Amino acid sequence: MPTPISLSTGPGVVRAYGCRYITPPLKRLLAYTLLHNQQHNHSHRPRLPLFSTLSSFHLPPNLNRLLTGDCPFSGMERYWTGSTNNKNKAMVENLRRDGVITSKKVAEVMSTIDRALFVPDECPPYVDSPMPIGYNATISAPHMHATCLQLLQDNLQSGMHALDVGSGTGYLTACFALMVGSQGRVVGVEHIPELVVESIKNIEKSAAAPLLKEGALSIHVGDGRQGWPECAPYDAIHVGAAAPEIPKPLIDQLKPGGRMLIPVGNIFQDLKVVDKNQDGSINVRTETSVRYVPLTSREAQWQG
Ligand SMILES: C[S@@+](CC[C@H](N)C(=O)[O-])C[C@H]1O[C@@H](n2cnc3c(N)ncnc32)[C@H](O)[C@@H]1O
C-alpha cells in the first residue's frame, strides 16, 4: 500500500494530505529530510514519528518552531509526559495559542474527543500533521480539523443536522456529534467499508459513543459525491476530500442558511466555503489553499 505522505517531484515538493498548503522554505527542507528518511525505512506507513525524528536534530524549541512554520511542533516535547488526555488538551491549547481555535465550544469538543483513539497506533496522534490511515487515505491534520469546526460552528448548534463526506477515521464526525448534541443528527459517509468499520470502533471508544448508540450519529458506506439524502437537508456539510467541482447533490442537500466546506481542485486546491441563502442561491468564497486526497471512486483511490 503506497504511503499517502510521500515525496513527489524533488526537494521542496512535499505531498501531505489533509492540511493547509503552506511550506516556508526551511520547513520544506526539513520535511524533505524527514520524508527522505522515511523512504529508506522500507515501510509503507511511516513508522518514524515526525517529531521524534525532529527531536534527533536537537533543535532549541524556538528554532524548532520557526522551522516548522504554522505547525506547533515546538511544544511537542512537553506532550511526552502526562496522560493521553492531557496530551490531547495540550494539542488543543497549542491550537488556541496559535489562533487556529478561538471558539470555547470548539476547544471543549476537541479536548473531549481524544485524537489518539482515531490515529493508527504507529503514528503520533498529537503532531499537527496528517497521518496515513491505510487505503490511500489520511486523517487530516489537527489544524485542519480545528479550522473546519471553527468555520462551521454557527451551523453546528445544538439540534442541527450535519453531513461529513469522506468521514475516514470518524474523528471529525464525532466532533460534529458533540457540537450538535443528542437533539441533533450527524451522518458520516465513507466509501471504504473497512474504514467505516474502524471508524465505528473508534467512536465507540470515544466520548461520542452514547450519541452513536442513540442514533444521533451514524456512519455509512457510500459514495459521498451523492451525499446522504435520507437525512437531508443539512445545516452543515463537510467534505474531507478534494473534488474537481462541487457535486450538485451536495448543494441540493444543503439547507437554506446552511454552509458547506469543500476542498476543490486537483493538484492546487482551495478550501471553498459555500453558503446557501434563504432564496436557494449560493455564495462561494475561498478560505485557504489546502492539500487533500481526491474525492473519487473507490477503484481510483485504490490505484492511487
Ligand atoms: C483526507 S481523508 C479525511 C478523513 C477524515 N476527515 C479524517 O480526518 O479522518 C478523505 C476521506 O475521503 C474518503 N473518500 C474519497 N472519495 C470518497 C467518496 N467518493 N465517497 C466517500 N468517501 C470518499 C477517503 O476514503 C478518505 O477516507
TrEMBL record:
InterPro entries for the chain: PCMT (IPR000682), SAM-dependent_MTases_sf (IPR029063)
Keywords assigned: Methyltransferase, S-adenosyl-L-methionine, Transferase
A cellular component term, taken from the record's GO annotations: cytoplasm
Assigned EC number: 2.1.1.77
One term of GO molecular function: protein-L-isoaspartate (D-aspartate) O-methyltransferase activity
Record flagged with keyword Methyltransferase: yes
BP GO annotations: methylation; protein repair
Xref: SUPFAM superfamilies: S-adenosyl-L-methionine-dependent methyltransferases (SSF53335)
Gene3D superfamilies, A to Z: Vaccinia Virus protein VP39
Catalyzed reaction equations: [protein]-L-isoaspartate + S-adenosyl-L-methionine = [protein]-L-isoaspartate alpha-methyl ester + S-adenosyl-L-homocysteine
Family under the similarity heading: Belongs to the methyltransferase superfamily. L-isoaspartyl/D-aspartyl protein methyltransferase family.
Listed name of the protein: Protein-L-isoaspartate O-methyltransferase
Lineage: Eukaryota, Viridiplantae, Streptophyta, Embryophyta, Tracheophyta
